[in-house]
Amino acid sequence: MTQRKKLSSTPHSQSGRRSGSTLSPEEEDDLSFTLPSSSQVQKGLEKLTPLQVDQKAAEVVQYFLVKDQKKIPIRRADLVKHVLKEYRNIFPEIMKRVARTFDQVFGLKLVEIDSKNHVYILINKLEGAEGDPPVSSPSNPKLGLLFVILSIIFMKGGVVRENMIWNFLKKLRVDPGKKHEEFGDVKRVVTDEFVRQRYLEYVRVPHTDPVEHEFRWGQRAAVEVSQAKILEFMGELHDREPKSWTQQYREAHSTPSSQANTSSQR
Q: How many Å apart are CA 182 and CA 170, to the nearest integer?
């Protein structure tokens, strides 16, 4: 994505820091967890049977699959606390086996989208012929709604005030102030569900009265969504060649890794 403004602290931003030194129990758990060294892992494995290790890896796989049904990113702290528990001293080995299982059995890739807070997601590793990210076009109504919002953000340079999003959706007869037949509470879906799934960031704009927010692409979108397909979508919508948007076209056809790195830098 294009250069982004520095995030401000806000409860709505999944990646924003909390003011002061107050930490949630999950953050405290993660801070208390130190990644074991290779020698510590080896010692831990010596105390367990191969079957015990395989069973624990299978539990972690199941935990990821359940969470992935709602596209909820998984924190390492939650994984250690609720699943690994006494097996935390072999965390790297468990995760290596889990990643291999997803790769070989499910055709999924385990990705750490936030290396600072250690947050993981699963993505479909089956890419298009040109290497496009897995989500290249909407496959259901809710994804279609997300695709429209991501398109607006991308075309406007990576940051959009929420009023612009709401006004655009109203033109599509999707009023955030009314219950929608397909989406239900539209505002909740956009500002809560899509944010928790890390498709969007919903950030408070500093020094605004009344309070205003703006949207950015989230970390999951940077990994899963094809900017090139979004530009094609906009071209069809406006009956224009994608190349006519010079800046966006250049960005969309840069390397996938540079797209992800730009949008995940903080």
A: 15
157-197 pLDDT, tens digit each: 889 999 999 998 888 888 888 888 888 889 999 999 999 98
| Nearest residue to 154 via CA among 224, 216, 237, 218 | 216
Other C-beta atoms closer than 10 Å to the C-beta of 94 total: 23
User: Which spans in the chain are helix H?
Assistant: 25-32, 38-46, 50-68, 76-79, 91-101, 141-155, 162-171, 186-188, 194-196, 219-224, 227-238, 246-252, 256-264
- pLDDT number for residue 162: 93
Residue 210: cis peptide before it, omega within 30 degrees of 0: yes
d(CA 137, CA 230): 8
First-to-last C-alpha distance (Å) of the chain: 12
**What distance in Å separates the CA atoms of residue 3 and residue 249, rounded to the nearest whole number?**
15
| pLDDT band of 125, cuts 50, 70, 90 | low
- Amino acid 32 reads S
- 108 phi and psi, to 5 degrees? -115, 155
Give the bridge partners for 114, in sequence order: 119
Q: Which residues neighbour 98 within 8 Å (Cβ) at sequence distance 6 or greater?
A: 57, 60, 61, 64, 110
